Amino acid sequence: MSLEEFNANKSPVKDFYHGKTVLLTGGSGFLGKLFIEKLIKCGVREILLLLRSKKGVSPEERLHALLKKEAVFVNYQQQPELYLDRLKVIEGDISRPGLAISNDDLDYVIKHTNIVLHSAADVRFDESMKESVETNVRGTDHLLNIAEKCANLEVFVYVSSAFSQCIKETVEEKFYTPNIDPLELIKMMENEPRLDELEAVSKKMVEPWPNTYSFTKALAEEVVRRRRDKMPIAIVRPSIVTSTYADPIVGWTDNFYGFNGVVSGAGTGVLRIFHIRDEYKADIIPADIVINGTLVAAHYAAKHPAEENVFNCTMDENHTTWGDIRNDCLSQKGVVAVKKSLWIPTYNTTRYYYVASFLQVFYHLIPAVFFDLVMRCRGEKPQILRLYRKVHRFSDVLRFFTNHQFQFATKRMRQVVDGMEIVDRHLFPCDMKSVVWSKFGVNHIRGCRVYLLGEPWNTNEEALQIYRRRRLIHLLMLGVIYSMYVVVGLRLLEAAGVPDLRSFLGCTQFA
Fold it and tell me: Is-above-0.90 flag for pTM?
């Protein structure tokens, strides 16, 4: 939808954000970029963007680079002032005490902020306990301290994760009390003499959660829950966030995390065997459904502050399976190709862990050694084996989520969606039932190709020519390998005392 069309409509949700000042964390992240684009369309007065310096690049320079680089900022090239006039950088760091905000910036935030959108998080599943607690738990607590002082605050929104409560068979839209006091854990983490002790017992402490990410997300929700009597709050729990479905553009994504990494790995011929239960529900959700759903839920929470405003943003009402997604993606073989691929896509799955581990030797490690030898012979630096080490770490992290069934209640989110006015449904599409999964699969493949792998669509035919050549070589290699199996088998039969194939088959005539 164009900016002109969006502006031509008036709606309750859009009017709620119009003219407001929004403090946004995680603005340089995947969801953060989409929040920026949508909020600017809504006509916010200002977005206070919490950003830190990174690798010697100032926050302002990082912001300008993001605006120029990302296709999701659909109006930036023609109207840069539309963004620059409404984005104000607040230098800070969500993982630092007090968020490391200067006094002047802090005064400005407290004086002007109407809405806090907290989407920043350390999303690495294998991060240390210290770093996960600093960012996901303490960072949330310190941001709430600031929000408490904002005299004009209308709502505090925390973007959590549906897997924060993945230890439950069914996750309701309500608060759950964790088995550890988050504030006590923060104190332990800040106590340097006890830091080694904390890391030593962290694995035991995290159980039964599968990783520090899910665990600290659950603790952060408890931190938010304790402020319910001091400000209107909303918690939104998305499941595995993928590329956009349609808003503001089709198939956009900017990272290889989670499902995106699986699709990109399979499409480039890198990921060839994966431990997953194809018949299980795929807990994925398009990013624009999450963004619009969060903004709509925040509007609802601001109007109903006394309610327990926890919203599961998942596709349980319109789910698909991992196997169906796999088939949708494989349907694009020979239609979409990637020039920078390692080999042709040959994606296989198994529900058995030990089978997957065994096949990795043949599908991943042996080819990796072969390709590295070729690279050495060409005078290049070998890197495929190192790549597969990353792939296997990535697979290990995802295994818990692809081999367990989760049920997420969505009654409250459904109530909010059903209560939207028709114009809001048009401007903020977030009805999970509207997603056509086969369409999503095709667009996701193309989006990963264009936005993640950096290959413009007009190069697809050239990539297909490479794919056809490699496919022919692949088939010839299979023919040679299977012929070798036959020869070896016949030799083994001969060695076992079977004189020839006819006597083995018990045939009196062979014609």
Answer: yes
